[in-house]
């Protein structure tokens, strides 16, 4: 014999001040079902896998923004189907304000016939004062007196309800977590009913925001599940639901940019910053994969208002090695010009400059091989070959090369399209 429970709402328990009442208020549905449930126990044996119901945990939510928090049915064991739920949630009314509440996609897709919510004192806290922000969510699949039947009974995972919160714009809440918890004021809170009407499923365990299961309480109100005193009828009431608290994680304010911190680990002028900056010259902007805008901005280490220059790279080097001239003592002179010339027949590049230089950076269009050394990782990107030469110990040339006219010879083919030189940054 199979008995399918249909639900009749009790209009006498509509709380005063209900905030969105267009239909009768179905409350304590689980206990009602428990009382009238008479029939065979078919599914949830002692070792049955639990159901899980989860409050979403948002991440990086902006101050002052709208945060959408879903209440989901996260796992549905083979034995499970559900004719109704009665959930009570507590939230932080100082940092969060409810904007809207709607039934979830699972109820939509199944054609459930009743969904309602109540907030504040209207949430009905078992005759006790409702403390803090509370919201009660009630769903019933099949209402007596409503024509038709739902197409399914929430026997798959999906969203039961969706709550939209306005997050406070008060900077005091920046970088904080505002928890949203299941809350128990009486035994009917956070209970599910089976379709056959013979079983009431209550908390088996409650998981905190950090994923840790929490020991249960013995008294109400509690966010840690129904106390053992609720288990008054072991033939109809089962601990089969794992509840997972959630909440809104409000984004932290960005840390101020650190000059010279090209790799964005909040420490400037590291060797690692310099290596990454060097890689930019030979491989381009693709090497900046943390936050490209910030990485470009902090590269202006010589503070001339122009990022990503060869002078910045040289300046960073001298700063790191503690060279006394780290502060530019040889600022660029618009009239101080280095002449580069390329002989495409002899395949040489020369420079002309009366003083010594510390670095030269050249971009060739074409696949050009300096000194005929086709080393692994040679920076030809399919269109350009970029060559960075420095007189410091970090590169593979000595300083004398910059005191001579002849800079390099090469094999392959390439046309010099851009060239830069630096003295000390
Ligand atoms: Ca760094
Ligand atoms: Ca600069």
What key attributes describe this structure?
elongated, disordered N terminus, mainly beta, binds calcium ion, 425 residues, four-stranded antiparallel β-sheet
Question: Your description of this structure?
Answer:
This protein has helices spanning about 30-35, 105-110, 270-285, 290-295, 310-320; strands at about 50-55, 55-60, 65-75, 85-90, 95-105, 115-120, 135-140, 160-165, 175-180, 190-195, 200-205, 215, 235-245, 245-250, 340-345, 350, 360-365, 370, 385-390, 405-410, 415-420. It is mostly beta strands and about 425 residues long. It has 3 domains: about 10-250, Immunoglobulin-like (Sandwich); about 255-330, Type 1 dockerin domain (Orthogonal Bundle); about 330-425. Strands 1, 2, 3, 4, 5, 6, 7, 8, 9, 10, 11, 12, 13 and 14 form a 14-stranded mixed beta sheet that branches. It has a 4-stranded antiparallel beta sheet with strand order 15-16-20-18, with no helix packed on it. A 3-stranded antiparallel beta sheet has the order 19-17-21. Helix 3 (about 270-285) packs antiparallel against helix 5 (about 310-320). The termini are far apart. About 40% of the residues are buried. The protein binds calcium ion (2 copies). One calcium ion (CA) binds near residues 300, 302, 304, 306 and 311.
């Amino acid at each position: 014999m199979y008995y399918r429970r249909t639900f009749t709402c009790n209009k006498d328990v509509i709380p005063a001040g209900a905030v969105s009442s267009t239909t009768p208020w179905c409350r304590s549905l689980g206990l009602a079902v428990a009382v009238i449930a008479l029939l065979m126990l078919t599914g949830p044996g002692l070792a049955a896998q639990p159901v899980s119901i989860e409050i979403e945990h948002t991440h990086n939510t902006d101050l002052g923004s709208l945060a959408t928090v879903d209440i989901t049915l996260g796992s549905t064991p083979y034995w499970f189907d559900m004719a109704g739920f009665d959930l009570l949630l507590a939230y932080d009314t100082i940092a969060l304000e409810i904007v809207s509440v709607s039934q979830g996609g699972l109820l939509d897709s199944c054609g459930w016939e009743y969904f309602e919510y109540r907030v504040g004192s209207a949430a009905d806290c078992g005759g006790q004062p409702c403390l803090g922000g509370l919201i009660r969510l009630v769903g019933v699949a099949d209402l007596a007196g409503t024509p038709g039947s739902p197409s399914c009974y929430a026997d798959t995972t999906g969203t039961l309800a969706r709550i939209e919160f306005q997050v406070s714009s008060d900077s005091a809440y920046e970088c904080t977590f505002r928890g949203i918890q299941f809350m128990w004021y009486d035994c009917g809170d956070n209970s599910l009913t089976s379709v056959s009407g013979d079983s009431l499923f209550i908390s088996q365990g409650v998981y905190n925001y950090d994923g840790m299961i929490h020991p249960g309480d013995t008294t109400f109100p509690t966010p840690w599940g129904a106390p053992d005193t609720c288990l008054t009828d072991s033939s109809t009431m089962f601990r089969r639901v794992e509840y997972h608290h959630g909440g809104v994680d409000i984004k932290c304010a960005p840390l101020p940019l650190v000059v010279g911190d090209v790799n964005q680990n909040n420490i400037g002028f590291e060797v690692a910053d310099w290596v990454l900056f060097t890689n930019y010259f030979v491989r381009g902007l693709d090497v900046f994969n943390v936050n490209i805008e910030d990485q470009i901005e902090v590269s202006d280490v010589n503070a001339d208002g122009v990022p990503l220059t060869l002078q910045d790279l040289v300046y960073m080097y001298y700063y790191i090695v503690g060279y006394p001239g780290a502060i530019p003592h040889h600022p660029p002179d618009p009239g101080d010009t280095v002449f580069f010339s390329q002989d495409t027949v002899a395949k040489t590049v020369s420079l002309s400059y009366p003083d010594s230089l510390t670095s030269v950076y050249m971009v060739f269009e074409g696949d050009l091989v300096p000194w005929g050394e086709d080393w692994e990782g040679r920076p030809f990107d399919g269109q350009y070959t970029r060559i960075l030469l420095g007189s410091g110990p970090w590169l593979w040339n000595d300083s004398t090369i910059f005191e001579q006219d002849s800079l390099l010879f090469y094999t392959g083919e390439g046309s010099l399209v851009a060239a830069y030189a630096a003295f000390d940054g």
